[in-house]
Amino acid sequence: xxxxxxxxxxxxxxxxxxxxxxxxxxxxxxxxxxxxxxxxxxxxxxxxxxxxxxxxxxxxxxxxxxxxxxxxxxxxxxxxxxxxxxxxxxxxxxxxxxxxxxxxxxxxxxxxxxxxxxxxxxxxxxxxxxxxxxxxxxxxxxxxxxxxxxxxxxxxxxxxxxxxxxxxxxxxxxxxxxxxxxxxxxxxxxxxxxxxxxxxxxxxxxxxxxxxxxxxx
Amino acid sequence: xxxxxxxxxxxxxxxxxxxxxxxxxxxxxxxxxxxxxxxxxxxxxxxxxxxxxxxxxxxxxxxxxxxxxxxxxxxxxxxxxxxxxxxxxxxxxxxxxxxxxxxxxxxxxxxxxxxxxxxxxxxxxxxxxxxxxxxxxxxxxxxxxxxxxxxxxxxxxxxxxxxxxxxxxxxxxxxxxxxxxxxxxxxxxxxxxxxxxxxxxxxxxxxxxxxxxxxxxxxxxxxxxxxxxxxxxxxxxxxxxxxxxxxxxxxxxxxxxxxxxxxxxxxxxxxxxxxxxxxxxxxxxxxxxxxxxxxxxxxxxxxxxxxxxxxxxxxxxxxxxxxxxxxxxxxxxxxxxxxxxxxxxxxxxxxxxxxxxxxxxxxxxxxxxxxxxxxxxxxxxxxxxxxxxxxxxxxxxxxxxxxxxx
Lengths: 217, 406
Prior knowledge:
Shape of chain B: rod-shaped
Number of strands of chain A: 5
Oligomer: heterodimer
Number of strands of chain B: 5
Strand content of chain A: 5-15%
């Protein structure tokens, strides 16, 4: 397995330095950026596998970066990273294209695991993220009130998500549901797609309606 | 008529200006009525309008032009007022050739100019009060603005208005006997308006100042509240961390605990409510993290009021967490709770060593009594699932209120 080429986007220089040091053995950090415009340029220049993207950035936040690559064919895998684990921060990032979400208190081993997972095109759902996504799909939706066009989950997908929220690893979910871990991954990928495909621009509207980003940003 | 209102077109949101404009308009209307009562309606209305429009033009356009030329402001208004008075007086007497109407024009002008002065004074005061409210104490101390406490302009304005009122009474005085009750009422009305002219803006100005003071007070209260909270939480934790610097585990625990509390506070739910089940679950998890020195990732979806079965559920969760902390001390503990009116489910899972359920000695009754028995007593259920090497999950369920009745 080749080492993942990673770009770090965070407006705190100290934090970037810390993550860079933590990842030193496992990944290759090819670029850093402190603001959305810088990040878009760095990603275009270095073509990384994975972008670690902070949610709260100056000039519109991580959503702006995600939106810039929404229609790109060769977009890297985005892994959102924030101190916040509030649903209103987590869900828009995933809906706008992030393949996973981790909080900044994550341990190095778990961060590397998350990077590797999104690098290979899979989703990284922490138990909490799985719970929020479950909530976003359930009616009456209290996280995303305007999501009537959100495609419904199949019972199996819901089951997988529920087990993720309870903290089960893929292997055990597969055992419990009588399917292979790879099938579990497929279900999680399907959930992610349903979340992101519901509407290309809904995530930004969703965030704008809550004052998380400026509507013109 | 629009003299006062237009004199400060950019300050329409100032309550003092609105009050002066309103009373000024009423005064003009009253004067028109007074003139009309004396005879030829059409002509007197025209005269009154002219008398109102002339100072309006002089007071508004004149200073505007001067300001545009020289960049001066209110001094131009003060200069323009006497000029406008004389001009209007000349014109009105020319047109009307009646002494009384001429004097009425003068009275009108004096009243309008008085209004402008009172309004300007109040406006300046309100503005200054506003600026003061926005400043920090240090800025206030070092401000080089000359503050005139005595309301010279307001006083002059009030005097002008009073003089105008006296003048009108003087003109109409000789006619009162013949004119009857209507004229007396009119004069009383004019007097009342003159009083209102002086009193109302002062009251409104005071109210506006009071609003600003309250706003400043609210800001200060908020700052003190934030400071008190930070002192009790973040500063307290920081000092604890300094004292326990030798114990990395304790430092991590303190930092994580504080981080969670600060996040909850920033998200707008500062204190966990104890009268809901979600709040209780959060509190129990926090207490247990402190007691057992473990990290628990708790996610709660939904909420419901705390009732007796809910209390039992929280107590059973505490027991399940305690077991997890004892038997899987280094494992990650995840708690997922789904709460709504239909029911409640809490899953406590650790990825520790796990165990064979059958192998647990019957004398170790902790699980059976504290968890299974408690949930059964509350009308719910508890299920323990574990296998060696695959962690343990305790699922606690309560039926919904409707289901429980069945």
